[in-house]
Amino acid sequence: MKVELTKLSQTGSVLVAFAFNSKKGKDERLKLNHASLATRLKNAIDGKELSSKAQDCALFRDIDFEGFRHVLVVGLGDNLDHETLRQAAATVHGNLKSVKANKATVLLDGVLTDKRHAPRQIQGFVEGLILTDYNFDELKSKKKDNGNDKKANSEMVVNLVSSLATDAGVKKSFHEGMVLAESVNFSRRLGDLPGNLMTPTILANTVVEAVKGTGIKATVWDKARIKKEKMGGLLGVSMGSDQEPRFIILEYKGAPASKKPIAFVGKGLTFDCGGISIKPSAAMEEMKYDMCGGANVIGATLAIAKLKMKVNVICVVPATENLVNGSATKPGDVHTARNGKTFEVNNTDAEGRLILADALCYASEQEPQVIFDAATLTGAIVMALGNTHTGYFTRNAALKKKVEEAAEASGEWVWNMPLTDFHVKDMKGTYADLSNMSSGKGAGSATAAAFLEQFVGEGIPWAHFDIAGTAWSVGNRLPYCPKKGASGAMIRTFVELAKQY
Ligand code: BES
Ligand code: ZN
Ligand code: ZN
Question: If you measure from the C-alpha of residue 293 to the centroid of ligand 2, how many angstroms do you get, rounded to a whole number?
Fold first, then answer.
């Protein structure tokens, strides 16, 4: 799909207009953002066939209106914010696909409210289009309609028309939305690839390839180096697998060297069977997504570099499988993390925190301004928040404010979770400094966060994002996300956060 932004309307096979509620006193009426189309569709409007409700739409096939074969009218309700437009774009995409449109014109005048709000609105819309265009079908042998659909999709041109098309702020946000959505789609693919095709080595190689030409420097440590670097958490988890672990380091310098970097850390479990504390078989295949934290911080770093943001970034991803061979870590085994702290592995399925421990130590050593980590860390967060809100943990009030603002501006949902000394106490070990399992009942996500906190350098502001609920299969809520598949959660929020440093 190709999306263009122009001032003047171009011809195409489909014209897309919008219907929303216009309030005149008590009288609520449907308003269409195209006067002569409103006249043409008067009967449909009067007969209430046309709805202005958000997510409703009406497709008028073969009506030959002003050179367009079909006309699509999409409802926006009474809130024209960026999230409404992101979701409306998904409706537009679905309809264009259904009529196999090769070119469509989308009228945004009257929808982009004013110069102040238009940038975010256009960004939401273009993100919605490109996010919905993602389709993970590369593993299907291209036959039947599957191949044709893909062709039609990739060749579709969508022309967004607005009198604000040449406004500098609008143009910048249009470009930002494009880069962000493409980065999200890049990360989604990493998550969607199955464990055998997305091993730690393949992940590292793919990332090395992807950063070419972006100004990002990529360094990859192999097993021998990981051992030499005293990363006992990452090494311990990888022992049960024949695949070598990798420690991926990305560095982007968009600001003078004197400016401290912001650090991203992501869990890169390319497959988690639980280890000796093996998981039940049902839905175990979903554990290929256990590297979405890693994939998503990589996507955020790529986007920051492509947007040439004036910030320094360090992004680290410990990558391994959690499997179960004769050398696997056993319940009760004790390993030593990079900062010298020892931990008992009382449940080998609580492995994410172990590999993140070393990564957080390494990130802290770079003396960053702030650390953000993302991980599909606990089943407990899915129980607590479901799949709309990402649970995040920080004890830093200023950072909390930044996170809330960034999520709001990005159209992502976050929820602040508690992290206290009670949770830290629950993670004390019997034989070692720490246990990877809580001695208390419940609060599994908070105790996991408390474990991570032990590896964050003193005084460094840090926020941990548990994306276990939001990293995949959120399409039931968000129409621009796959019903089954990786979502790219928090990439947009992380890029927005980077603007604040
Ligand atoms: N990768 C899982 C967490 C997970 C569960 C993600 C469900 C997505 C959906 C993680 O490694 C794990 O297994 N955590 C355990 C920790 C427990 C053993 C303390 C969990 O949450 O059950
Ligand atoms: Zn696990
Ligand atoms: Zn895991």
Answer: 14
Contact criterion met (CB below 8 Å) for 291 and 345 = no
Task: Record the tokens describing residue 54, joined without a space.
Answer: 């958000």
What does the alpha-carbon distance between residue 58 and residue 436 come to, in Å, rounded to a whole number?
Answer: 54
- Find the radius of gyration of the CA atoms of the chain: 24
Centre of ligand 1 from the C-alpha of residue 207, in Å: 25
Of all helices (H) and strands (E), which one includes residue 306? helix 292-306
Asked whether 302 and 186 are in contact (CB, 8 A), the reply is yes
Q: Are 354 and 237 in contact (CB under 8 A)?
A: yes
Closest listed residue to residue 160, CA positions, set 85, 62, 69: 85
248 and 220 Cβ atoms separated by less than 8 Å: yes
- Cβ pair 219, 167 in contact under 8 A: no
Q: What is the dihedral of CA 225, 226, 228, 231, to 10 degrees?
A: 170
Phi then psi dihedrals of residue 264, to 5 deg: -115, 140
Q: What is the pLDDT of residues 275-299, one digit of tens each?
A: 999 999 999 999 999 999 999 999 9
277, 278, 320, 378: which to mutate for ligand 1, most atoms within 8 A of CB? 378
Q: Is 49 helix (H, G, I), strand (E, B) or coil?
A: coil
Minimum CA distance residue for ligand 1 atom 5 = 379
Tell me what percent of the chain is helix, strand and coil, each rounded to the nearest 5: 35, 25, 40
The answer for 485, left when phi > 0, alpha when psi is -120 to 50, beta otherwise, is left
Q: Is 353 a catalytic residue?
A: yes
In total, the chain counts a number of residues equal to 501
- Judge whether 269 and 351 are in contact, CB under 8 Å: yes
338: annotated active-site residue: no
pTM for the model = 0.97
What would the pLDDT profile of 228-265 be if each residue is shown by its tens digit? 999 999 999 999 999 999 999 999 999 999 999 999 99
List 435's β-bridge partners, or say none: 344
CA torsion 14-20-22-23 (nearest 10°) is 170
Residue 336: burial class (beta carbons within 10 Å; 0-12, 13-18, 19+)? middle
